[in-house]
Design a protein that fits this description.
247 residues, alpha/beta, globular, two-stranded antiparallel sheet, 6 strands, 12 helices
């Protein structure tokens, strides 16, 4: 039975990172004015990302919860929050699928001075530290200490395995079929069962599949962005569509 509603979550790779950038879009044949605020081009990104391709193929509704620089803890939490907040709405559907793309395990999501912030790097020249003119100095230092002195890949892998199993059982209780996609996490793959995540041809990690098949923006046009290209999103969609049809 084909799905009638789809839920997607992950980081910028599922969000469609890079495909809202007019510099990149123009390299693909668009003729867009260059603006500091790219929000006008979010609709283009939405059309090009793999979640939309799958939704269009099955002619069903979908929601994409992915955020740039997202952390695993926030991906798991926002998936749970979305379902909890929309239980009545979701009851209307008969066959819901949820695809959750895990990200790099060193990322953190924190509430800092009332603002929810995804942390991916502690260089002051990186987002979000460049946006507040020093407002985030103490947060930058905290994250540096976390990454250098506290973070441990094996420990995080164990935590994420628990979260994956817990979230999968919760979603199952709500009649939602859930599949996990591992972007890049060797330690997590070591402790998961093979049927716990989707494989991309001979690749266990989505990152390796995309790199091995030259499906990044940087593989196709003269730009250093390592996010999935429009072709890459189509290829990923084809694999996930096949997964749904074979379930």
């Amino acid at each position: 039975m084909k799905p009638d509603f789809l839920i997607f979550n992950g980081c910028s790779f599922t969000q469609g990172g890079g495909l809202e950038n007019p510099f990149i879009l123009n390299l693909y044949g668009y003729d867009l004015p260059i603006k500091e605020d790219n929000s006008e081009y979010f609709e283009i990104r939405k059309e090009l990302r793999y979640s939309n391709h799958i939704s269009e193929y099955f002619k069903c509704e979908h929601v994409n919860l992915a955020e740039t620089c997202n952390s695993n803890e926030n991906i798991f939490q926002t998936t749970f929050n979305y379902v909890e907040s929309n239980l009545e709405k979701l009851k209307k559907y008969n066959n819901i699928y949820c695809f959750i793309q895990t990200t790099m395990s060193s990322r953190k999501t924190v509430k800092y001075r009332g603002e929810i912030i995804n942390l991916n790097g502690f260089d002051k020249n990186n987002f979000p530290f460049t946006t507040k003119n020093g407002y985030y100095d103490s947060l930058q230092k905290w994250y540096e200490i976390y990454v250098v002195d506290i973070f441990d890949e094996k420990t995080e892998a164990k935590k994420n395995k628990k979260e994956i199993y817990t979230l999968k059982e919760y979603l199952k209780s709500k009649n939602i079929k859930t599949h996990f996609i591992i972007y890049s996490d060797i330690e997590l793959l070591k402790i998961l069962e093979h049927n716990d995540y989707i494989k991309f041809d001979s690749y266990n990690e989505l990152m390796k599949y995309v790199e091995g098949n030259k499906l990044r923006i940087s593989d196709e046009v003269n730009h250093n962005d390592g996010h999935f290209s429009p072709k890459g999103h189509k290829k990923i969609a084809q694999i996930l569509i096949k997964k749904i049809e074979n379930d």
